[in-house]
């Protein structure tokens, strides 16, 4: 009998009620499934709940929430025998979209019940795991402001974008590894494990969560006009040469900052560390995930 633990980020009481109702219906046969529902109520709480579920010998741990909740749960089961599941309940749902997991709660739960499993690659930046992307430039400032204003959805993203345009400071970054040796003041320095960001937007169309590589995308410093054009073009997945985008497939890369201070984002979670070096690498097939057939 499988022990399935659902860790729910209670961002919406309505969604949580729908989720619990459908869990009880789909997993009612206690001869096959023994399920537990745990509610994450603040940042970092999902990490605590996941560790408790591991001690309780869970076979499957399901993150029910957005990319932040997914990261908090998944980072604790990398390279373990535990199977990881996703019920997307956030705004962007980048990893779920990449794995073709539907936003509909009932349909996502049916996929959990079927238990079709694939191993996906995992990114690592110093001691932190990421599953979608990590970045050390405009995206980190953008996510910091998005989280600060705590206004979700498209309106929240738009507000954070305009604030970040005034907030953003170009920092000189040295990039080393696998034939790379360059110094840049990038507008974007993104390391992608997937070909999608939230809302089906893509800046790394060639990235794959199954190819054993990370995609490094460097977009050089741009004028405000070009920045606006760039984000409009990303909606259509069209990237003219005027944007000076450099793309590389990597296993590892080292980033150096002269400021001895890095602000970066991992799957939308912003981290600030006093360090002059970030080591980025990939762990091939590091996580077993339930996906659609």
Q: In words, what does this structure look like?
A:
The protein is of the alpha+beta class and 293 residues long. It has 2 domains: 113 residues, Rossmann fold (3-Layer(aba) Sandwich), CATH 3.40.50.10330; 156 residues, Sandwich (Tumour Suppressor Smad4), CATH 2.60.200. It is 30% helix and 35% strand. The chain has 8 helices and 16 strands. Strands 6-5-16-13-8-9 form a 6-stranded antiparallel β-sheet. A 6-stranded antiparallel β-sheet has the order 12-11-10-7-14-15, covered by helices on one side. A hairpin with a 2-residue loop joins strand 8 and strand 9. Helix 1 packs parallel to helix 5 and helix 6 packs across helix 7. It starts with a strand and ends with a strand. The relative contact order is 0.16. The model has no long low-confidence stretch (mean pLDDT 89).
């Amino acid at each position: 009998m499988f022990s399935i633990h659902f860790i729910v980020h209670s961002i919406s009481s309505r969604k949580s009620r729908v989720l619990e109702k459908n869990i009880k219906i789909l997993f009612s046969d206690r001869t096959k499934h023994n399920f537990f529902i745990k509610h994450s109520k603040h940042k970092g709480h999902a990490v605590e709940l996941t560790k408790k579920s591991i001690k309780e010998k869970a076979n499957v741990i399901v993150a029910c929430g957005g990319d932040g909740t997914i990261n908090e749960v998944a980072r604790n089961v990398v390279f373990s025998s535990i199977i990881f599941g996703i019920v997307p309940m956030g705004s962007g749902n980048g990893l779920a979209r990449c794995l073709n997991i539907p936003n509909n709660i009932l349909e996502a739960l049916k996929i959990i019940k079927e238990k079709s499993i694939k191993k996906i690659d995992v990114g690592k930046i110093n001691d932190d795991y990421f599953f979608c992307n990590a970045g050390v430039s405009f995206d980190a400032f953008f996510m910091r402001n998005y989280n600060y204003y705590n206004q979700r959805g498209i309106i929240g993203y738009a507000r954070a974008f305009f604030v970040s345009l005034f907030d953003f400071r170009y920092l000189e970054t040295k990039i080393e590894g696998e034939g790379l040796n360059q110094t840049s003041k990038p507008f974007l320095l993104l390391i992608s494990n997937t070909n999608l960001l939230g809302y089906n937007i893509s800046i790394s169309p060639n990235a794959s969560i199954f190819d054993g590589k990370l995609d490094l995308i460097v977009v050089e410093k741009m004028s405000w006009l070009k920045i606006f054009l760039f984000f409009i073009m990303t909606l259509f997945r069209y990237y003219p040469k005027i944007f000076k985008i450099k793309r590389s497939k990597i296993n590892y890369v080292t980033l150096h900052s002269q400021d001895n201070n890095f602000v970066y984002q991992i799957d939308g979670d912003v981290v600030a560390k006093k360090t002059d070096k970030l080591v980025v690498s990939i762990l091939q097939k590091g996580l077993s995930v339930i996906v659609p057939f």
